[in-house]
Design a protein that fits this description.
Layout lengths: L4 H12 L5 H12 L4 H8 L3 H22 L1 H21 L4 H11 L1
Helix pairs in contact: 1-2, 1-4, 2-4, 3-4, 5-6
Amino acid sequence: MEMDKNVSMSLLIDFYGEMLSDKQREAVELYYNEDLSLGEISDITGLTRPGVRDRLVKSEAILKNLEDKLGLLRRFEEMKEEISDIADQLESGKADPKDIIERLKKLS
């Protein structure tokens, strides 16, 4: 399932935001998590609007590169899907206990 870019970037910030500089993290958090405009971020940071945009583009590239290399968000989403599937099977009463145990062991 393809997720909205803003949601995806917010999740990348959650997973990798500490890898950014303080200024980069501030910009992406204000833009994606606080939903501020470039002008509003410019007023807060003292950067020009093009400077804010440049910082966002560079920060996004760093976050995407980290995800490409480490895949933490991808693995998190896969685990969520697997857990949801296990829960559905348990709720339906059609779960094979041995299968569920094996799947849970793989998740851990």
